[in-house]
Amino acid sequence: MSTPAVQVRDLRKHYGSKKAVDGLDLTVESGEIFAVLGPNGAGKTTTVEILEGFRHRDSGEVSVLGVDPRSADLTWRSRIGVVLQSASDHSELTVREMVTNFGRYYPSARDTDEVIAAVGLTDKAKTRTGQLSGGQRRRLDVALGIVGKPEMLFLDEPTTGFDPEARRSFWDLIE
What we know:
Number of domains: 2
Strand content: 15-25%
Radius of gyration: 17 Å
Distance between the termini: 23 Å
Shape: globular
Structural class: alpha+beta
Largest sheet: 3 strands, antiparallel
CATH class of the largest domain: Alpha Beta
Order of helices and strands: EEHEHEHHHEH
Oligomer: single chain
CATH topology of the largest domain: Rossmann fold
Number of strands: 5
Helix content: 25-40%
CATH architecture of the largest domain: 3-Layer(aba) Sandwich
């Protein structure tokens, strides 16, 4: 039996008296597509940020790709991809420049043009990111999340701003 991609036991995170995450147990198998759903304030973002290694937990055990994100190194970080709900603005760079530059952070990044094509931005490759529509910007965010050939991809509302056809294409890409 293989090691789960994500293993969480009794995860807890509090902000003062507010219990954001209170005793969560979770197992996600390798190759599984898993969604965290719930109302605002339910602890979804806190949980995902702990799994990504961006937020510290108060207690509990967490393993992502066999490593505790709390003590993970750059080798582990290169194995995950992250698509945030909102990304930083680099409006003067083109789509190709952004994907190429982000690819340099990874030991064996995917081909820039392949990634741009996979997210449906081939005709926008030379366009400055500040000129992209909201849906096109989300496609670029996804491109930046997958350029490093991640073993695990974290997505925070990745299809926000997508039209129905783009949403279907995106889910086909993820599958």
